[in-house]
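Async update (no meeting this week)

Hi team, since we skipped the sync, here's where things stand on the single-chain job. The sequence we agreed to prioritize is pasted below, unchanged from the tracker. I ran it this morning and attached the output directly underneath so nobody has to dig for it. Comments welcome in thread, and please keep replies under the output.
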Amino acid sequence: MQLHAVQADITTLAVDAIVNAANRSLLGGGGVDGAIHRAAGPELLVACRALNGCRTGQVKLTPGFRLPAKYVIHAVGPVWHGGGQGEAALLADCYRNSVTLAMAQGCASLAFPAISTGVYGYPVEAAAEIAIAIVRAAAMEPLAEVIFCCFSAADHMLYQRLLGRLPR
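Output:
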């Protein structure tokens, strides 16, 4: 399996599934969530309404509608409260459950944003370490490629370093 990082708009990636850093309502929001809802079109909101929300750490699946991706996996990450309220375990669950669902759908390629690191305030490096460790441990066939899609150049360099592609 190939793991790599790119700096891109996740809504433009031609992969089998993208992960949405969703809120508990699944009805759209800011950041990645808003961008995915806008790019997928109004059908995504209709599909999300039928899912009746999602608990933190859990995931739900919809079609990609107008996205190049066939599926959207909606993952609800934890809000950072300093690290003492189970945030690491909940974030790990997001990545593990996303990988498991992608494999169950027969996906060969999957792209993740940096879940919980925007308005939810999770420290970027700690979140990236969890993301990479969980994906390495959980992913297997049919999943052949996992992309960590970074919004900023700084996040991209961090992921590259953690993946061993840049010196420490």
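Quick observations from my side:
The chain has a mean pLDDT of 97.
The helical segments are 31-40, 42-49, 87-104, 124-138, 153-162.
Reply here if anything looks off.
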